[in-house]
């Protein structure tokens, strides 16, 4: 675990206007300042908030991420945003393949893979989300689902590149539901993901990849989840919208 950087990332989803974004980040900054040099703290915000977030966090240890990126460099893709557009703003991270994108916007492992490759090529660090549906867990095929996602989502990603990839294990049944995977359940799958990475690359490479848990992580359950040997951080939805709660999770990782 000491080989890896702990990363706590907020995923704001479709929340916050620019003034609200500024207010939340101004509240978060001083709270998490002590995490500097110890863990990475990221706010993944809607596209319209990126510039505000970058200006507001300048000079602080809070980094900024986007919530999606398109895979083509430019062209006739109405409504999409390219990786170069993000890097030009100063964005460092990007969430790719969030379950809400997969569920509501037709995201597939193929497009997740294309977005991941495009992000890496542009110098963005992708936070690639994987996770099983409730019925897949009930049918006892969680490992099959995860193995398939890791294989397809990281297709053609080299060992050198994967060091800049963060994997977020987000069981779909735990996202925004208040249902959290138990620390044991989350650890089991995060360890399985690392084993898949070791198989695809090698153990040293797998040991260097940050794997987050996400799914109703909050101020009350974060410490226990983050104490697990293969859980290197969290991707936080609801609880990232309150500075105090987000900070409690950050402090649990410091
Ligand atoms: C998420 O959106 O990635 C997430 C984990 O949401 P929540 O924390 O609200 O379950």
Automatic annotation (TrEMBL):
GO terms for molecular function: triose-phosphate isomerase activity. Its main location: cytoplasm. It is found in: Cytoplasm. GO terms for cellular component: cytosol. Transmembrane segments: none annotated. One of its GO terms (biological process) is gluconeogenesis. InterPro entries: Aldolase_TIM (IPR013785), TIM_sf (IPR035990), TrioseP_Isoase_bac/euk (IPR022896), Triosephosphate_isomerase (IPR000652), Triosephosphate_isomerase_AS (IPR020861). Homodimer. Involved in the gluconeogenesis. Catalyzes stereospecifically the conversion of dihydroxyacetone phosphate (DHAP) to D-glyceraldehyde-3-phosphate (G3P). PANTHER family: TRIOSEPHOSPHATE ISOMERASE (PTHR21139:SF42). Belongs to the triosephosphate isomerase family. NCBIfam families: tim. This is Triosephosphate isomerase. It comes from Ruminococcus flavefaciens 007c. The lineage of its organism: Bacteria, Bacillati, Bacillota, Clostridia, Eubacteriales.
